[in-house]
Amino acid sequence: MTDFDPATLLPDTLLDTLRERAAGYDAGTRFFDEDLADLAAAGYLKALVPVDRGGLGLGLREAALLQSRLATASPATALAVNMHLVWTGVAKVMADRGFDDLAQIQLGAGAGQVYAFGISEAGNDLVLFGSDTAAVPDGAGGYTFTGTKIFTSLAPAWTGLGLHGLDTTSPDAPKIVYALVDRADAGDTVVTRDDWDTLGMRATQSRTTVLQGVHVPAEGVLRRVDPGPNPDPIVFGIFAVFELLLAAVYHGVAQRALAVAVETVGSRRSKRTGKAYSQDPDIRWRIADAALALDGIGPQLDRLAADVDGLVDHGRRWFSLLAGVKVRSTEVARHVVDQAIRSAGGSSYFNRSELSRLYRDVLAGIFHPSDAESAHATVASFWLGPLED
Question: Does the reported pTM lie above 0.85?
C-alpha cells in the first residue's frame, strides 16, 4: 500500500462536515454546492494535476484512496466528483505515456475549472466505441455537436464538458471525436434539463444534457479515433480511470456501511439475553461475512491503480481486469450494505437512517459501465477468445 495518507487532504473535521450535509442533500434532491466549494478550497479537484500545471501531482493510486474516504462521508458527492477526476486522470494517464493531448484539461483544472463527463447516451451500449451524437466538421478543424447525453453529473456546476460524437462526413470517416465544450461559450446551444429525480445518489444532479448544435473550435478538439474497440490511449485512459475510481467510491460506501453496522449492533441490546447484539452469533456471522467480502476489494484496487501509475503492461488483459474490479466492488458493496441493514434491524428501514440512504445509493453501482453482463463478456473473450460468427 502507498504511504500516502488521504486524511492529509480529507481531514476528519472536513469529513464530518460533509457527512452532516449528506442527508439534507439527499432529502432535498439538492446539489452539493457547499461540499464542492469546500473540496475545491482544499485543492481536491487538482489532485491528479501535475504540480507544474497548478495541481497536487498525485497518482491514480492516491486518488482511489481519497475517493474511498470521501465516499464514507457522502457517496453522492464522491460519485459526482469522480467525473471531474476522470478527465484529469485521463490527462495524466495519457501524458505519462507520452500523449499530451489533454494538456488544456490539466491547465484548466489547475486554474479552477470543473469538468463533467459527457459520454453516456440512452440506448448506446457501445459506450466509448460509438456515439449517437453527430459531430459535424466545420472545415477549420472544429466540430458542431448535436445529440443528447444522459447522467451528466455536476450538471449545475461544470465549466467544461468533455464529450464524444461520431464524425461520418470527413474523408477519413467514421471517427469518434473527443472534444471539450466551454460552457461560457456554448450559451443556449447547451440545455441542461432539470430531470434528476432518482432513488439514490440524488446530490449528484446527473441531469440530461441536450446539445443543440454546440460548436467546438479546433483548439477544443481533444482526439479523433476509429470507432469500435481499439488500443488508443484515450480509450484506455477513460476506461482505466473511470472503472478504478468507480470501484473506489463503492468501496468507500461498503466501508461506511460496515462501520455503521458495527456501531449499531454494539449499542443495541437484546431483551431476551440482556446482551449487546454484537454478542448474537447470527449477527456476528453477518458482520464477519460482510468484512470477509470487503477485505478483498482494497488490495486489488490498490494494485491495479498502482499498475496504471507505474505503466505496467497487462496487454489484452487490462480491460478484463478493470471491468472485473469495478463489478466486484459494486457487487460486494451491495452485499455489505445488505448485511449491514440485516444486522442493524428495522430502524434502518426509516429514511432518517444512514444505512437506508446507503442502501439506495449503492444500487446505482449496477448501472455504471461496465455492467455485469459486459464485464463477463469481456472476461470470457480474453480467456476463451471471441464468439464465433
Answer: yes
